[in-house]
Specification:
The complex is a heterodimer of chains A (211) and B (202).
Chain A lengths: L2 H6 L4 H7 L4 E3 L4 E3 L2 E10 L10 H4 L4 E9 L3 H21 L3 H22 L5 E12 L2 H17 L3 E3 L5 H8 L7 H7 E5 H5 L11
Helix pairs in contact in A: 4-5
Chain B lengths: L1 H12 L5 H4 L2 E5 L2 E4 L3 E9 L8 H15 L6 E9 L3 H13 L3 H20 L3 E12 L4 H18 L3 E4 L2 H12 L20
Antiparallel strand pairs in B: 1-2, 2-3, 3-5, 3-6, 4-5
Helix pairs in contact in B: 3-6, 4-5
Classes of the chains: A alpha+beta (211), B alpha+beta (202).
C-alpha cells in the first residue's frame, strides 16, 4: 500500500466496535477497561547479577501481561566513551575517598563498566535498553488485589523493584499493548541498559515447566 | 454549594474520548495493523520450547546462540508475553477413561494422583498456555509494508536458526491478539468473523 493510501485509509469502525472494550477509565494509579481493573507497573531496579532463566518466573504470571520494549544502542562508540569517562570518575573516587561505602560502590562500578567495555569491544555483544512493563488484571476488587499481591511478590522475589508510573497509566497502557509502540515518557524511567546476552540468558522464549 | 460547583466544573473540564479513538487503531489488514498516528505494526508469533529440560550448560549455549543470531538487530522491537487458560476437560475425561480400564492397583493409584493434579490445575486457574509475540513497527513511508515483511522474515530466519518455530500473524490472528488485551474475558470465545453477514436465524 502506498503512503497516501495509508493516510487516506478510513477508520474501520466495524472492527473497532468489535475489539474496543466497553469503556476505559484512566485513574492516577489504575485503569478500568470494560469490567476489568488493571494496573501497569514498570521494573525500575534490577539486581547486579541474575541467574540463567531469570525471565521465566516473570513472564508467565497468571492474569498478567508482560511487555518488553528492546531498543538496541546504535551509537556504540559514544556509549563506550561515556562508560570510559565514568570509569575515570569512579577510579578517582576509589583512590581518594575515606568512606568505605563509597569506596566499595566505586569499585563495583569500575568492575561493571570494565565488563561492559570488554563485552562490547572484545566479545562483540550488543547492548540494549530494556523497558519492562507488566499489566495485571482482575475482574473484581478482591481478585485484582490478590493478583497484584502475587505479581509484587514474584517481582520482589527475583530481586527486582517494580514501580507504578503514577499519572502515566494511559501511556503505560498503550506501551504495554500489542497495538501501540513505545513512549519516551515511560521508557526514560523504565529503560535499563544491559547486554543482549543478559536478556537472552533470561530464556524469554522458554515455556515454563511448572511452579 | 461552592464545593459542588467546583466538582461539576472539574467533571465538565475532564477531557473525554471514546474507547474506539483511545485505541489509536485505524485498521487491521493482511499482516499489518495501521494506527491513527501513522504507524504500521507487524507481528511474529514465537512458539516457546521448554528450556528447563536442558542442562545449565545447554541453557547457556542456547542463550549464546540467540545472542549471536540477534546481534545484527539494530532497530527496536517489542516482546509481548501473554498466557491464556487452557481447557483441560478433554484431558481429564481421557484420564477418567484410563482409570476405568485399569485393573492394576498401583497404576490406578498413580493415574488417580495424575487426574487429581490436573483437577487442581484446572480449578486454581493455573493451567496456562504461554504465548509470545514479537512486534516490529515503522513510520508510514512508501515501502513500509515491504520493509516490515523483510524484517519479519529475517527475524523468522534467526529464530529458525536458534531452534524456534514461528509464524507471521495474519489479519484474523492480529485481531484476536488485540482483542485478548482489550477484552481479556471474551478473547478466545468470541467469533472473529466480524465481516461476515449479520446474525441469521436457522
Amino acid at each position: 500500500m502506498k503512503t497516501k493510501d495509508i493516510e487516506t485509509m478510513p477508520i474501520n469502525q466495524e472492527l473497532l466496535n468489535l475489539i474496543a472494550p466497553q469503556g476505559i477509565e484512566i485513574k492516577s494509579s489504575r485503569v478500568q477497561m470494560g469490567e476489568f481493573l488493571s494496573k501497569i507497573q514498570y521494573v525500575s531496579g534490577y539486581p547486579s547479577r541474575v541467574n540463567i532463566g531469570w525471565l521465566l518466573n516473570l513472564k508467565d504470571i497468571p492474569n498478567t501481561i508482560v511487555s518488553l520494549v528492546i531498543t538496541p544502542i546504535e551509537d556504540v562508540q559514544a556509549f563506550v566513551e561515556g562508560v570510559s569517562k565514568g570509569i575515570t570518575t569512579d577510579k578517582n573516587t576509589y583512590n581518594t575517598t575515606q568512606n568505605e561505602f563509597l569506596r566499595t560502590q566505586a569499585e563495583f562500578k569500575i568492575m561493571s563498566a570494565e565488563t561492559m567495555i570488554r563485552e562490547i569491544t572484545i566479545d562483540n555483544i550488543p547492548y540494549i535498553n530494556l523497558s519492562f512493563l507488566a499489566k495485571t488484571n482482575g475482574n473484581t476488587e478482591n481478585v485484582f488485589t490478590e493478583n497484584m499481591r502475587i505479581v509484587k511478590n514474584k517481582i520482589a522475589g527475583m530481586g527486582l523493584k517494580a514501580r507504578l508510573p503514577a499519572f502515566q497509566q494511559e501511556l503505560a497502557l498503550k506501551q504495554a499493548s500489542p497495538y501501540d509502540v513505545a513512549y519516551e515518557k515511560i521508557t526514560k524511567n523504565s529503560n535499563k541498559q544491559m547486554s543482549l546476552s543478559a536478556l537472552f540468558n533470561g530464556l524469554p522464549f522458554s515455556r515454563k515447566w511448572s511452579d | 454549594m461552592k464545593g459542588l460547583d467546583k466538582l461539576v466544573k472539574a467533571f465538565k473540564s475532564k477531557p473525554t474520548m471514546t474507547a474506539n479513538k483511545f485505541l489509536n487503531i485505524k485498521d487491521i489488514q493482511g499482516n499489518f495493523l495501521y494506527t491513527i498516528d501513522g504507524k504500521v505494526l507487524a507481528y511474529l508469533k514465537i512458539y516457546p520450547k521448554n528450556c528447563k529440560l536442558m542442562s545449565k550448560e545447554e541453557q547457556k549455549n542456547h542463550a549464546q546462540i540467540l545472542t549471536r543470531n540477534f546481534a545484527s538487530e539494530l532497530k527496536p522491537f517489542k516482546l509481548y508475553f501473554t498466557n491464556r487458560p487452557v481447557n483441560l476437560q478433554r484431558n481429564q475425561d481421557y484420564q477418567a477413561e484410563l482409570m476405568d480400564k485399569e485393573k492394576n492397583a498401583t497404576k490406578f493409584t498413580l493415574q488417580s494422583k495424575r487426574s487429581r493434579s490436573f483437577g487442581n490445575l484446572s480449578v486454581r486457574g493455573k493451567a496456562l498456555e504461554s504465548e509470545i509475540y514479537l512486534i516490529v513497527w515503522g513510520e508510514n513511508t512508501e515501502y513500509i509494508e515491504q520493509e516490515l515483511m523483510k524484517r519479519l522474515n529475517d527475524l523468522k530466519m534467526k529464530f529458525t536458526n536458534s531452534g524456534y518455530r514461528t509464524e507471521i500473524l495474519e489479519e484474523r490472528l492480529i485481531i484476536q491478539l488485540v482483542n485478548s488485551y482489550t477484552n481479556p474475558d471474551v478473547a478466545y470465545i468470541e467469533n472473529q468473523d466480524y465481516l461476515e453477514s449479520p446474525l441469521t436465524v436457522i
